[in-house]
Amino acid sequence: MQQYIVRRALLNVVVIFLVITGVFIGLRVTPGDFAVNQAAGQITDVHSADEATALVRHDLGLDRPLVEQYGDFVGDFFRGDLGNSFATKRPVMDELGDRLAPSIELAILEILIAVVVAVPVGILSAVRQDTWLDYILRFFAIFWLGVPSFFVGVLLLYFLSRWAHWSPPITDYQDFFENPFMNLQAMVLPAVAGGLAAGAIIMRFLRSQLLEVLRQDYVRTARSKGLRERVVIMRHALKNALIPVLTVVGLLLASVASGNVVLETLFNLPGLGLYVVNAIRQDDYPVVQGVVVLVATTLVFVNLLVDVAYAWLDPRIRYG
Fold it and tell me: Is 124 left (phi over 0), alpha (psi -120 to 50) or beta?
C-alpha cells in the first residue's frame, strides 16, 4: 500500500505539472490582455496608448520572455506562491483564502443533500425493482441528471419569489459562524440545485450496485436463515453496495467544488467561482492560474484519498 501511495503521489505531481503548463500556455494564446485594459486609463499627453501599455506590461513583468515567466511561475508554485493579482496587487494565495470558505461550504451542503436524498431513494428503487415506484424514481433521477444545476437554481428562485414571495439575500453574504440563519438563507437554493444533480448520480450508481449485491450467494444465504428483509438489506447488502459509491461521492465532492462557478455567479456568493469569473473578465492571469491549479490539485489528491479509503473499507482489495 505504501508503495502504491508513493507512486500515485508522484503521478499526481506529474499531472499537476501538466495542468500548470496547460493553463499557462492557454492564457497566453487566448485573446485579451490586462495591460491593454489597464493602460486605457493611464493615457496622458505624455504617454501614448502604446507607451502606456508598455509601461503596464513592464510593471507586471509581462514583457519578459515566456520561458522566463513560465520558470518563475512553476518555481513559485512549488514554493507555495501563486503570484500577485494584477487587479488588486495582493497575493493570490491570500485572495483564495478569503474566498475558499463559501465554496467549501456550498460543496459540503450539496454532498449532504445528495447523500440524504440519494441513499434512501436508491435503496427503495432497488428493492422495488421494475415496479411503478421504481420507474417513477428512475424517471426523476434521469430528469435531474439531464437538467443543469444552474437552470434548477433559476427555476427555484423564480417559483419561490413568485409564489412564496421569498428570495435569498444575494447581496449581503454572511459567514456561517457569524450569522448562521442569514448564511443558510443564501446557501439553501444553490445547495439544493447542485445537491439534486449530484444526488441523481449517486442514486443511479447505488441502485445498480445494490441490485448486483442482492444477487450474491451470501445474501441468499442470509434470507434462507429466516432473517427479515430489512436486516438483509441494511446489514448485509447495503454495506457492500456502499463501498463503490464512496468513490463516486469522493469524486463528486471535488468536482462539485470546482463546478459551482455558475451557481456562485448566479446567487452572488463570494466564493472561488465568482472570483475566477471576475478574473477572466479582467484578464487577471495569476488569479485564473491559481484557481485552476488549486482545483486540479484538489481533484487528484481527493482521488488518491478515495482509492486509499476504498481499500481500507474492502479488505479484498490489494494495491500492488
Answer: alpha
Q: What would you report as the CA-atom Rg of the chain, rounded to the nearest whole angstrom?
A: 25
Report for 106-120, 144-158, 242-256: range of highest mean pLDDT: 106-120
* Residues 28 and 289: beta-carbon distance below 8 Å: no
Asked whether the predicted pLDDT for residue 41 surpasses 70, the reply is no
**Cα distance between residue 122 and residue 250, in whole Å:** 18
Instruction: Determine if residue 290 is left, alpha or beta; phi over 0 gives left, psi from -120 to 50 gives alpha, anything else beta.
Output: alpha
Overall average pLDDT of the 54-70 stretch: 81
| Angle made by CA atoms 298, 18, 257, in degrees to the nearest 5 | 25
CA–CA separation, 123 vs 163, rounded Å? 33
Q: What is the pLDDT of residue 301?
A: 82
Q: Where in the chain is the domain with CATH 1.10.3720.10?
A: 99-313
**Dihedral class, residue 179 (left if φ above 0, else alpha if ψ from -120 to 50, else beta):** beta
Confidence check: pLDDT of 110 > 80: yes
Residue 102 DSSP one-character state: H
Taking each helix axis from N to C terminus, what angle separates 149-163 and 180-214, rounded to the nearest 10 degrees?
130
Say which residues have a Cβ less than 8 Å from residue 297's Cβ, sequence separation at least 6: 16
> Which residue in 67, 33, 26 sits closest to 50, CA to CA?
33
Per-residue pLDDT band for 315 (boundaries 50, 70, 90) equals low
Cell reading at 241: 453496495
User: How buried is residue 285: exposed, middle or buried, by Cβ count under 10 Å (0-12/13-18/19+)?
Assistant: buried
- Look up the CATH architecture of domain 99-313: Orthogonal Bundle (1.10)
| 84 beta partners | 91
Looking at residue 57, what is its pLDDT? Answer: 77
Distance (Å, whole) CA 311 – CA 320: 12
